[in-house]
C-alpha cells in the first residue's frame, strides 16, 4: 500500500513538472499580447487628448493653447517630391507679397455663470454646440478655420461659412492692423463643420498645410498652380527623425477679405510660425517671384489632394497592382 501511494505521488509530481512549462509559456504569451495591444492603442491615438480635470477646461479659464498633441500634418497629405518645372515662361511671372494664416486652437467652455461665452452659429442662426471666449471666437473668425477641443479631448474643426446681417460679437477692439470694416465683418461671421482634416477653402477645396494659399480671385483664379523658386529646398521639420524639403509648389484654394491684388496668404495648418521666413511674414513681406505653371500632371496631383481624393486614388492603384499580380501568378502556374 505504502509503495503504491509513493508511486502515485511520484507520478503526480512528474505530471505537474511536465505541465509547469506549458503554464509558464501560456502566461508569457498572454502578457506579451497585452503589451502589444497597449502599444497599438498608444500609437493609434490620433485625436488630441486634453486632461478633463485640468484648470484649462474650467469655466472662465484662458484658452491660449501653445502646444497640443496632434498627428503629423504630412502623414495623410503629400510628400514634397514634385520635380522642377520643365518650362518656366517669363510671361507667367508674378511679383507677389505674402502673409500666412493657420488653424486657431480653442477649448469649449461651460456657459453656466459666464456672460462672455459665445456660441458658434450657422448661417441659419442655429448653435453648432461649443461656446468660446471672446478672444477665441474672434481669432477663429479671423483665421477662418478653428479646431475646438471639447470635454474628453474630442477635436472638431469648424470653418467660416459667411456673414450674417447682424453682428454677434464685437471684435473691433482686436486686430488693430485691419480696417474697421473688416473688423466689423469678423463679428458677423457664421460657421460650419469642416469636411477636411485641416478645414475647407473655396469651391469645395480642402486646405492642405504648406500647399494651400488664399488669393484674390481677380488676380489669381482658384485652382491656379504657382511655383515659387525661393521656397524650393526650404527645410520643414517637426522632429529629428522627420526632415522634409519643400518643392516650391503652391495651390490657390482659398480666399480672404483682406487678400487684395498681388497679396497671397500661405496656409500653415497647426503651425504658429512660418517656415518660409525668406518670403512669408505675419505682415506683408518683400516682393518675390512666382510663376504660373500649366503642367497638367502636377496641377492634377495637387487638385486631387485639395479635393480629398488622393487617398482613394492611391488605394485604387494598390488594388490594381494586387489584381495584376494575381493574374501574373495564375498565368505562371497554368504555364507550368
Which labels suit this protein?
6-stranded mixed β-barrel; 5 helices; Ribosomal Protein L25, Chain P; 336 residues; 4-stranded mixed beta sheet; 29% helix; alpha+beta; 22% strand; 14 strands
Shape: globular
Mean pLDDT: 75
Written as H for each helix and E for each strand, in order along the chain, the element string is: HEEEEHEEHEEEEEEEEHH
Structural class: alpha+beta
Spans of at least 5 consecutive residues whose pLDDT stays below 50 are: 1-11, 16-20, 35-77, 310-316
Q: What is the rounded distance between the termini?
A: 70 Å
Strand count: 14
Q: How many individual domains?
A: 2
Q: Order of strands in the sheet with the most strands? A: 1-13-8-12-9-14
Mind telling me the C-alpha Rg?
28 Å
Largest sheet: 6 strands, mixed, barrel
Residue share in β-strands? 15-25%
Helix content: 25-40%
Question: How is this fold's topology laid out?
Answer:
Elements: H1 2-43, E1 93-101, E2 104-107, E3 118-121, E4 127-132, H2 134-143, E5 145-149, E6 155-163, H3 180-186, E7 189-193, E8 212-214, E9 225-227, E10 235-239, E11 242-245, E12 249-254, E13 263-267, E14 288-292, H4 296-306, H5 310-335
Parallel strand pairs: 1-13, 2-5, 8-12
Antiparallel strand pairs: 1-14, 3-4, 5-6, 6-7, 8-13, 9-12, 9-14, 10-11
Tell me what the structure shows.
With 336 residues, the chain is of the alpha+beta class. It folds into two domains: 74-101 and 204-330; 104-197, Barwin-like endoglucanases (Ribosomal Protein L25, Chain P). 29% of the residues lie in helices and 22% in strands. It contains five helices and 14 strands. The protein has helices at residues 2-43, 134-143, 180-186, 296-306, 310-335, and strands at residues 93-101, 104-107, 118-121, 127-132, 145-149, 155-163, 189-193, 212-214, 225-227, 235-239, 242-245, 249-254, 263-267, 288-292. The strands form four sheets. A six-stranded mixed barrel has the order 1-13-8-12-9-14.
Amino acid at each position: 500500500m505504502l509503495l503504491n501511494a509513493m508511486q502515485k505521488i511520484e507520478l503526480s509530481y512528474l505530471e505537474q513538472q511536465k505541465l509547469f512549462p506549458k503554464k509558464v509559456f501560456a502566461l508569457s504569451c498572454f502578457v506579451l499580447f497585452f503589451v502589444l495591444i497597449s502599444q497599438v492603442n498608444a500609437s493609434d491615438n490620433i485625436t488630441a487628448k486634453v486632461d478633463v480635470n485640468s484648470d484649462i477646461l474650467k469655466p472662465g479659464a484662458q484658452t491660449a493653447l501653445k502646444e497640443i498633441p496632434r498627428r503629423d500634418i504630412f502623414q495623410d497629405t503629400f510628400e514634397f517630391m514634385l520635380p522642377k518645372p520643365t518650362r518656366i515662361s517669363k510671361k507667367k511671372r508674378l511679383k507677389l507679397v505674402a502673409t500666412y494664416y493657420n488653424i486657431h486652437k480653442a477649448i469649449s467652455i461651460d456657459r453656466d455663470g459666464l456672460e462672455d461665452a459665445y456660441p458658434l452659429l450657422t448661417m441659419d442662426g442655429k448653435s453648432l454646440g461649443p461656446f468660446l471666449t471672446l478672444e477665441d471666437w474672434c481669432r477663429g473668425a479671423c483665421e477662418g478655420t478653428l479646431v475646438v477641443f471639447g470635454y474628453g479631448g474630442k477635436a472638431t474643426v469648424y470653418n467660416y461659412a459667411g456673414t450674417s446681417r447682424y453682428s454677434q460679437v464685437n471684435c473691433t477692439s482686436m486686430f488693430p492692423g485691419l480696417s474697421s470694416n473688416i473688423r466689423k465683418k469678423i463679428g458677423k461671421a457664421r460657421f460650419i463643420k469642416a469636411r477636411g482634416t485641416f478645414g475647407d477653402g473655396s469651391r469645395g477645396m480642402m486646405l492642405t498645410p504648406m500647399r494651400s494659399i488664399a488669393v484674390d480671385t481677380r488676380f489669381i483664379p482658384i485652382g491656379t498652380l504657382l511655383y515659387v523658386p525661393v521656397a524650393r529646398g526650404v527645410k520643414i521639420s517637426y522632429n529629428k527623425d522627420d526632415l522634409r524639403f519643400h518643392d516650391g509648389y503652391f495651390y490657390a484654394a482659398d480666399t480672404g477679405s483682406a487678400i487684395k491684388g498681388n497679396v497671397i496668404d500661405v496656409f500653415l495648418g497647426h503651425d504658429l510660425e512660418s517656415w518660409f521666413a525668406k518670403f512669408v511674414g505675419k505682415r506683408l513681406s518683400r516682393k518675390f517671384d512666382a510663376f504660373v505653371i500649366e503642367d497638367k500632371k502636377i496641377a492634377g496631383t495637387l487638385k486631387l489632394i485639395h479635393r480629398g481624393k488622393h487617398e482613394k486614388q492611391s488605394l485604387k492603384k494598390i488594388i490594381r497592382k494586387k489584381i495584376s499580380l494575381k493574374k501574373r501568378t495564375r498565368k505562371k502556374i497554368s504555364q507550368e
